[in-house]
Amino acid sequence: MANAKAVNVPRLIAIPSLITLAVTILRVVGEIKHWPTPWVNTAAGGGGAILGIAWLPIIFGPYFAIKLVGTGDAPASSGRAIGYAFLGLIVFVLGGALFQHSINHPSALTLVAFLVMLGAAFVPAIGWRSLGRALLGYALAARIPVLIVMYFAMTGNGGAGWGTHYDAVPPSLANFPVTTRYIFLGVMPQMTVWIGWTAIVGAICGGIAAAIANKGKHPAAVSA
């Protein structure tokens, strides 16, 4: 039977990462060409667009989980795996609440809030190490391309931007230099908030999928 050490994370996440990259590219094209909502949304944040990658962990979390279970790399306890995934969600929500409390007057607390939401991404791995590793790897593979797109979107057209959600700026940051906007709207949320979101949502959905797949089974090899 395979065990956690035998899991090749790059291979496991390769196809989902390529699909996610394709969705990102398609969304960039759609926003530049002004495709209609709800396919795209060029407002700041870009929420609610069908061509988005925020909802993909709902699909790929179970995908990773089923693949791992298929190799015998199931969690020691499905309940424990799901429990730690929800604990990660609690930590993430607490970080979000701290962010909302501090964002009107950004300070060191705002940075702490970002770090708490990033830290939440590592909590699910306590319950199922292999799935946690896969989701963290996938989260980076999903968000680094977005970060690159945001850089070119914000600096494009002489700093005027592309007119997409990747370079949309809220009024509070409109007068800041492009580099500052990129750090606050690109680097910090993409490398903290969205890493946490991807890992936690994927772990919850993946843990539930593994529990269903493992129902009535007693795998010979399990992952802590």
Provide a short characterization of the protein structure.
The chain has 224 residues and is an all-alpha fold. It is built from 7 helices and 2 strands.
Task: Give the H and E element order.
Answer: HHEHHHHHE
Strands in their spatial order, largest beta sheet: 1-2
Tell me the β content: under 5%
User: Number of helix segments?
Assistant: 7
DSSP summary, beta strand count:
2
Spans of at least 5 consecutive residues whose pLDDT stays below 50 are none
The overall average pLDDT, rounded, is 91
Helix fraction bin: 55-70%
Biggest sheet record: 2 strands, parallel
Regarding quaternary structure, what we see is single chain
Provide the gyration radius in Å.
Answer: 19 Å
Could you tell me how far the N terminus lies from the C terminus, measured between alpha carbons in angstroms? 15 Å
Q: How would the global form be characterised?
A: globular
Q: Label the structural class.
A: mainly alpha
How would the blueprint of this fold be written?
Elements: H1 9-32, H2 57-70, E1 74-75, H3 78-102, H4 108-119, H5 124-127, H6 129-155, H7 178-213, E2 222-223
Parallel strand pairs: 1-2
Helix pairs in contact: 1-6, 2-6, 2-7, 3-4, 3-7, 4-7, 6-7
List keywords for this structure.
224 residues, mainly alpha, two-stranded parallel sheet, 63% helix, 2% strand
Overall description:
By secondary structure, this protein is mostly helical. Helix 2 (57-70) packs antiparallel against helix 6 (129-155). The chain has a two-stranded parallel sheet with strand order 1-2. Helix content is 63%, strand content 2%. It is globular and about 60 Å long. The model has no long low-confidence stretch (mean pLDDT 91). It is built from 7 helices and 2 strands, in the order ααβαααααβ. It has helices at residues 9-32, 57-70, 78-102, 108-119, 124-127, 129-155, 178-213; strands spanning 74-75, 222-223.
